[in-house]
Design goal:
CATH superfamily of the largest domain: HUPs
Strand order of the largest sheet: 10-9-8-11-12
Strand content: 5-15%
Radius of gyration: 20 Å
Helix content: 40-55%
Number of helices: 17
Pfam family, one: Asn_synthase
Number of domains: 2
Shape: globular
Keywords: ATP-binding, Nucleotide-binding
Number of strands: 14
Protein name: Asparagine synthetase B
GO molecular function: asparagine synthase (glutamine-hydrolyzing) activity; ATP binding
CATH topology of the largest domain: Rossmann fold
InterPro entries: Asn_synthase (IPR001962), Asn_Synthetase (IPR050795), Rossmann-like_a/b/a_fold (IPR014729)
Distance between the termini: 35 Å
Structural class: alpha/beta
Length: about 350
């Protein structure tokens, strides 16, 4: 069992507690494969086996035909059964209580991280800056020299009076990393590779520098209303929910598909991910945020920003940032490489075709 003691997981199964105070878990328990409600740890079984406990792994590359164990489920010889669903608690009575609860949950979760062997993936935005403000460990940013993330990380590191290590991305590094990412994650679609690229190349440098764990601000956008499609619900066609809070839950339900990609890529690069903003106490607090606690006018992640003011300068707490694949320019430059190799934009999913050519 990874992520939690078997005793804790067994108690969660018996009680039906979906958020028993862990950072996620996955593995075998009493003859069944079990994965936490948000799928924070990857878990796979071999397709077609009568008993999945006979052929399972945390690494999809270790099986011939891996099938993910659904988040929140147990899977044994009798089939799959749901153990947990995300709670749906009543919202906080007011925004002041919401800010206090989120601040306590976030600070407690970050402060509990063991800094030994740890580095931080630092983009200069709110989420990674919260980690940097409370953990005295090296900061790393990946990007092309003119990228938004490198510039933002440098300015935020200056505000925090911290040293920053820059992982400069190059076309050669991208071409080398793409097939390695595809092998580790089992994915060749353009978006998955673009998202994993800056993480993977950061992790390689971190491992080369002697660190074996990498802290990330993952989960904050999903938990606290960081996406435009959440902020614009129900008008945005990318979500089905009728409220911002409903859209928050909708994007949270995509985490079991997203997180294994990042975990597998980071482990392949030689580090173990650490995600304090995805611990149960933070998730529990975020699930109690109502629409205006998630998004206030044009301000996304309103409660988290207010909670962060005790740890961060306002210039960072109020800062917007781009997704890593765009802020690092990894997406733009992978597209450029695809076109240089003859995969033009008029072709169907030209970047994915280029990725597949590198894998072949």
């Amino acid at each position: 069992m990874r992520g939690a003691d078997e005793r804790v997981v067994r108690e969660a199964v018996e009680s039906g507690d979906a958020l028993p105070g862990t950072g996620g878990f996955a593995g075998e328990l009493d003859g069944a494969l079990v994965r936490d409600v948000l799928g924070r740890y990857p878990l796979y079984a071999e397709r077609g086996v009568s008993d999945p406990a006979d052929a399972w792994t945390h690494d999809p590359a270790a099986l011939d035909d891996p099938v993910p164990v659904p988040a929140g489920h147990a899977w044994d010889a009798d089939g799959r059964r749901r153990l947990w669903t995300l709670p749906d608690p009543d919202p906080f009575a007011d925004r002041e209580r919401a800010v206090d609860a989120v601040r306590e949950a976030v600070e407690t979760s970050i402060d509990a991280v063991d800094a030994d062997g740890l580095a931080i993936a630092f983009s200069g935005g709110l989420d990674s800056a919260l980690l940097a403000a409370r953990l005295d460990t090296p900061l790393y940013v990946a990007g092309f020299p003119e990228s938004h993330d490198v510039e933002a990380a440098r300015s935020a590191a200056d505000l925090l009076d911290r040293e920053l290590r820059v992982v400069e991305l190059t076309h050669d590094a991208i071409e080398r990393a793409v097939p390695e990412i595809a092998a580790a994650t089992g994915r060749t679609n353009a978006m998955a590779v673009q998202i994993a690229l800056p993480l993977y190349l950061t992790a390689e440098r971190v491992a080369a520098d002697g660190f074996d764990r990498l802290a990330l601000g993952q989960g904050a956008d999903e938990l606290f209303g960081g996406y435009a499609k959440v902020a614009k619900a129900p008008e945005d066609p990318r979500v089905e929910a009728e409220t911002v809070r409903g859209a928050q839950r909708e994007v949270l339900e995509t985490l079991p598909e997203q997180l294994p990609r990042d975990v597998s890529a980071l482990r392949a690069a030689g580090v173990e991910p650490v995600t304090p903003l995805l611990r149960d106490q933070v998730v529990s607090a975020a699930l109690r945020l109502d629409d205006d606690m998630l998004v206030d006018g044009e301000t996304r992640k309103w409660t988290l920003r207010q909670a962060a003011r005790r740890s961060l300068p306002d210039a960072i707490a109020t800062r917007e940032k781009k997704a890593a694949q765009y802020g690092s320019l990894a997406s733009r430059e992978l597209d450029r490489l695809a076109r240089q190799a003859g995969y033009k934009r008029r072709m169907d999913d030209h970047v994915t075709q280029y990725v597949e050519s590198l894998v072949e």
